[in-house]
Amino acid sequence: MDEQKRNPNRNANRNVNHHANHHANRSLFRQVLMHLPCKTIGAAAVLTAAGFLSYWTYLGINQGRLLFDARRRPPRELPEGITAYSHTIPGGMLRGYVYRGDAHCAVTDLLFYLPGRGEDVLETMQFLHWLPPEVGFATFDYRGLGHSDGSPSEAAAVADASQFLLHLRRVLPGTRVHVVGRSLGTGVAIQLADLQDFESLQLITPYDSLLELVRKRFPLVPLRQLMRHHFDSISHCKKVVQRTKVLLAEVDDVVPHACSERLMAAWPGPVAVETIPGSNHSDIIAHQSTWQALSDFALLFARRPDLDAHGNRLDETPTPAPAPDERVAANDTGGGQEPPGLPVAAAPLRTDGAS
Question: What transmembrane ranges does the database entry give (predicted)?
Fold first, then answer.
């Protein structure tokens, strides 16, 4: 304190010296640039631009595999109670899985699960023992992931989900279907809601727009021009008529709660929301309370169709369902599919996915 009193201008002098040094450094940098040959500066600029263009080109060409984290997995035996499914796609076969826990108990409700980015669905299925015996489960590997062939894309994921669901309706007639999407799969689930009717929709850690989510991570990349797979859920959700519930992780560094909240704010109807205690984005599916919440919501509203997503009684006048010709048929390029209006006939569960 005494030193500061004896030298009141010391700090001011330090600031002046700092600015003087900064100015001198900038002047030196300008002098160096002035003495560099123009060819050298031009070559550096060209190399920098070429580096950006090469990176952007790589992202543009490989965006499907990067977005879906497409990794193949070695073949393995299916656990007990799980039946294989497949249908033909360009480049090979798409593979899925159907679970019926108790062969002696009729499946009244089915969770149709659309997985997250790079998710190993067979690992996820190890938690199915937490489901009630009357609740079945079905899921599949996106193209290029797990045991499925082909190249992943937004359109292909929606088309494959629609074709698989049509197959499930044929082999499990009378079973109530509840679609569950997780993370990346929430965008697929929301689009599927416009293609087919089902009892309820449940979204685990959903986002409003995958394009906007990725743009925040890569601000220097012209993603709007490069990305072909936008997963614009906030636009697609306008047509959803199914009862809907959102499950949030307590801590989520991948899909911030603000993204999920923007989606819910744009939802055309009521949305039930539940936060899974002690969970994060990666491990939310490994919590028993997650599976309890999924099955409770499915069973409650399947048995009480007079209730909305919050458990309140619906108006006496039911909401008219869209006409069949207003439904958009999924355009699957790997073998076609039947229109949703075809009658469903009882048939044994087949493993080849034949229509």
Answer: 36-58
Per the structure block, which two tokens stand in for 227? 């990305």
Provide the 3-class DSSP secondary structure of residue 37: coil
3-state secondary structure 251-288: ECCCCCHHHHHHHHHCCCCCEEEEEEEEEECCCHHHCH
Total residue length of the chain: 355
Cβ neighbours of residue 351 closer than 8 Å, sequence gap 6 or more? 83, 84, 85, 86
Pick the CATH number of 67-315 from 1.20.120.680, 3.40.50.1820, 3.55.40.10, 3.20.20.30: 3.40.50.1820
Helix, strand, coil % over all residues of the chain, rounded to 5: 40, 20, 40
3-class DSSP state for residue 178?
strand
For 200-255, write each residue's pLDDT tens digit.
999 999 999 887 776 666 665 655 556 665 789 999 999 999 999 999 999 999 99
- What mean pLDDT is reported for the chain? 78
Q: Which helix (H) or strand (E) holds 136?
A: strand 135-140
Every domain of the chain and the residues it spans? 67-315
Per-residue pLDDT at 198: 95
Structure tokens, 145: 């992931």
Is the pTM higher than 0.90? The answer reads: no
Give the helix ranges, DSSP H, for 151-256: 154-171, 184-192, 210-217, 223-226, 233-236
Flag whether pLDDT at 92 surpasses 70: yes
